[in-house]
Amino acid sequence: QVYLVESGGGLVQAGGSLRLSCAASGRAFSSYVMGWFRQAPGKEREWVATINWTGSRTYYADSVKGRFTISRDNAKNMVFLQMNSLKPEDTAVYFCAASIGPGSVWLPGEYDSWGQGTQVTVSS
Length: 124
Fold this sequence. Notes:
mainly beta; 0% helix; seven-stranded mixed sheet; 124 residues; 11 strands; globular
């Protein structure tokens, strides 16, 4: 099992940027597909982005494509989510997740480990 801790959330104005980080510990980080999800109050958990084991492939939800970038540093056991051109509808708790994979990367059930989440609030 891998243990995940997110950081980097906060309050930002619409149009601004934030960079989320997720630190992993435990089993070999490079053996996990990593994803970011988010959950707004009263809504289901929503897939945001996924990156494969080596970082050579990335996948994005249509709602964030072109604005968010997922990346990883296997040497440092870290995964990142660079969020640009933020909108009020991006407001949510953002979660980092790990999956042995491969599977349907957009499904929460495919992920084996989750962080505690970090709040992102975008003001209009």
